[in-house]
Write a structure and sequence with these properties.
Helix content is 70%, strand content 4%. It is mainly alpha-helical. The chain has one domain: Substrate Binding Domain Of Dnak, Chain:A, Domain 2 (Up-down Bundle). It has a two-stranded antiparallel ribbon with strand order 1-2. The longest helix is centred in the middle third of the chain and has 25 residues. The protein is elongated, with a radius of gyration of 14 Å.
Length: 94
């Protein structure tokens, strides 16, 4: 089981980092939706950093939870149209 947890934690951390690299805010600046998009992105980035902190502290359970929450923030933003992503990506549930 620990090997599975380690692999899954690594995979989710990489997936969140890749998703952050691909998702771009696509709503006009100065609008409430732009502010929401920026907040979603900041939350995802914060969870990525938290996950890395937990990973370095040898706490894969909390690292995986942080990566999952961060990815959820970003994926929700994509579904709401706050971010544009490449059409050929498999990182999001568009």
């Amino acid at each position: 089981m620990p090997a599975e947890l380690d692999e899954k934690t690594t995979r989710y951390g990489d997936m969140l980092a890749d998703a952050l690299a691909e998702a771009e805010v696509c709503v006009p600046e100065g609008t409430p939706l732009h502010e929401a998009a920026v907040e979603c992105r900041e939350m995802a980035l914060s969870y990525l950093e938290d996950g890395r902190h937990f990973r370095a502290a040898d706490d894969p359970v909390n690292a995986l939870a942080a990566y999952s929450y961060g990815y959820g923030w970003l994926d929700c933003g994509v579904r709401l149209g706050l971010f544009s992503v490449p059409e050929d990506t498999e990182l999001f549930t568009t």
